[in-house]
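Supplementary Text 2. Reproducibility record for the structural model of the 632-residue chain.

All settings were left at their defaults, and a single model was retained for analysis rather than an ensemble. We include the record here because the model underlies the residue-level annotations in Supplementary Table 4.
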Amino acid sequence: MLISVTGLYKYFGEKLVLENINATVNAGDKIGLVGINGAGKSTLINLITGRLFADEGDIAKAKNLRIGILEQNSGLDTANSIEQEMKNAFSDALSAKKRADELALQMAEVEPSSTEYKTITEKYNREMAIFEAQDGYNMELHINRVLAGMGFAGRDLSVPTGTLSGGEKTRLAIAKLLLEAPDLLILDEPTNHLDFATLAWLEEYLSGFKGALLIVSHDRYFLDKLTNRIWDVEDHRLKAYKGNYSQFKLQKQMDTELALKEYEKQQTKIASMTDYAQRNIARASTSNSAKSRLHQLENMEVLEKPRTHMPSPSFSFEYDTPTVKDALTVNNLPIVAGEDNVLCESVSFEMKRGQRIALIGVNGCGKSTLLKTLVGEIYPKGGEIVWGKHTKIGYYEQEGRILDGEKTVLDEIRHRFKNLLEYEARGLLGRVLISGDNVYKQIKVLSGGEKAKVCFAVLMATRANTLVLDEPTNHIDLLTRESLEKALSQFDGNLIFVSHDRYFINAVADRIIEIDGGQIKQYEGNYDAYATQKSAQKLEQAVVKEEQRSKEENSYYRSKKQRAADVAKKKRISELERLIEECDEREKVLTEEMASPDVASDYALLAEKCAELEKLKTDRENYTEEWIILND
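Retained model, structure tokens:
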């Protein structure tokens, strides 16, 4: 067991945040932490990491437990280069290697037969054991692999991290955490700023992560892919479920329905017993029986009525007049950021009435720039944009910059829609769960989620028949996302949007346009259909490549002697792969043995293990070199 939380309570002033929390984190757990914004997820994480202290209860941690957490501000030293930050993940190994190098110099200056030489040698072996146990020899390999996966392939690693964008810092912070390989890795919204390719790589990497994971995320695809447990924080309490997010949703619904039946059954029993007691308490012949019923009622543990649903926004997007059939036509439109940064030379596509198009692609490919060009925020540098007759556009900008930070929420709505009476404006805001005194808050003090809800209220009041949405699911919790998905799925106007939320795309889109390498590719269907088509394309490419390779081989190997040599070559390749795998497995065993206290304290045994490890590395290098030559 890595962490045990028992009877934990947390208050902020008089406000109860967490109540009687009981939970455990075991080795190998992959936990998704879910709940509405403000439920207490971040507070629980801060309690687990020791940044906050509980008012009641206890948090027990395994000895020497290493916890890594993705900081909201990245946690990087902005004065360091990318390379320095990555190597800092191996600081213990590098320190051990530095000490070993210093000891090696000392060894060269003393007599090999002396007692001092023996002492220095023992210290050297200990330091090298630390270096090797942390796989220091493969440090560069690990760094390059993780940086490539997180989107830094080919980047200048001498660049200071302070010059990176916010999204790049987040990706680099994740890369550093992966290299540190803590016992418990805590990721708070790790999928923000990640494109589909990076997301896929990260999911694959974390699927093989040996430590425990605790993930806070609104990305349901990500949670489904990685988690085997869910912690659901609701009404100050935590309930643990087995399985991934989709399984949790089904189980929670079943538990709620069962709890409601038990509650209703008990309420019926209470009503029956109360009625009996009231009718029979005054009658001498039945008075004792009535008193018995009352006594049972007094000692009965009354069940709380389960919450059947959490409050969620009530979105609906309506319009007065539909567009014509050809809602949008784009011809030879360049996507240009700034003055002359051409991201895509020519974009052409059509949107028919009622279509719901998702724009996808890697970060920086021009998705948001294209939307801004379509709605007129950026003047087109060529090409043609033709909106159909009767088009009325509602534009959602992802950071809420369309809002006036100095205005109150209520004033923002009434200023935009002067025909709305105050009670109508309040009703509109109430539908997005902004009510009471919250309508008098200034826009600039709102959270990201609250600003998003105000933008959705504006969008609903616009009554647009064409919605253009840039990352509409950023900053909003899962319940709000699900409400938005439902409303947009029922919207029969035109929709074009940018999103990194694959679950959202799957639920809403009926067509996907991908910007890839300065070109656009169009796919019919939702995200699952897109993923299937992409897989089919990759498979087709692999088949063509294999057929080409096969043809080349067949044209080369003609004679019986050549075919026999080919068989022998393939046999040797297979044997080499087996030998390399055996070396890898033995190296893992040796590394674990060398890290154990028994071996680490036995210098002779430790030296023996080090020698075997060095021979293994040499053998593996020889096998690998031969394998590469044979496969060339």
